[in-house]
Design a protein that fits this description.
This protein is of the alpha+beta class and 222 residues long. It is built from three helices and eight strands. The strands form two sheets. A six-stranded mixed sheet has the order 1-2-3-4-5-6, covered by helices on one side.
Length: 222
């Protein structure tokens, strides 16, 4: 064990901002450091994270933010260990390439044993999310909303796709879907190439249905 390394920071809710990405993006951050040695950071998240991006999907952003905020005097990025509280790949060391302007680019992920890691930092590592971490409350359910509609604006369900219910010369039925176009006779007028007696009969029948159904109804929508 390395006896010189100390845990210099334990932030249970280390949070970063990611443009155009819903957060908060949060993890537990434990930093182990000693004079003249490359710092080691252990970042811990639940899997899946309660909110925001995972350590794997945003490794470069989490590591760069931790380096800038807490280790600005370090000339190179810290050794970055990501840890999930559950799952087969619980402990992984992420290696980075350093790009211009201090940006990091993830090069690869390598599994590491907890025993090896504790030997590296010279002390036991708490693998939990930390007792100061407060999981966010779940989003409240979407409340039901109500609106008043006229029955004669709704497509009837009977009859359904009867023969000749969708002639090519008919006028489209406003506010109806194609599956209930047969009910459009309530608003259809004879087309230029249609049989006038048949069209008039359908239109008259449709208007009669509309008149009998002209009432208000309350519907639940989401």
């Amino acid at each position: 064990m390395n006896q010189d390394i100390e845990r210099v920071l334990d932030d249970h809710e280390f949070t970063i901002e990611i443009p155009n990405s819903r957060g908060p993006h949060c993890c537990r951050l434990q930093i182990f450091a000693a004079a003249g040695q490359r710092p080691v950071i252990v970042a811990t998240q639940d899997m899946p994270p309660a909110t925001g991006r995972s350590l794997t999907n945003a490794a470069e952003l989490f590591a760069a933010a931790a380096w800038r905020r807490h280790l600005e005097d370090s000339p190179e990025p810290p050794r970055w260990i990501q840890h999930y509280t559950s799952g087969p790949a619980a402990w992984m060391e992420v290696t980075f390439d350093l790009e211009p302007r201090g940006r990091l680019s993830a090069r690869g992920w390598l599994g590491i044993d907890l025993t090896q890691l504790e030997r590296l930092v010279g002390q036991p590592i708490d693998p939990t999310r930390g007792d100061r971490y407060v999981p966010p409350l779940p989003d409240p359910p979407t409340p039901a909303t109500f609106r008043l509609l006229q029955v004669d604006t709704l497509p009837p369900t009977e009859p359904f796709r009867t023969a000749g219910c969708m002639p090519s010369t008919r006028t489209p039925f406003v506010n109806a879907s194609c599956c209930t176009y047969h009910a459009g006779d309530a608003r259809a007028e004879p087309g230029p190439n249609s049989d006038s007696s048949e069209s008039r009969e359908r239109a008259t029948h449709g208007r009669a249905q509309t008149n009998r159904s002209a009432a208000a109804a309350l519907f639940i929508t989401r």
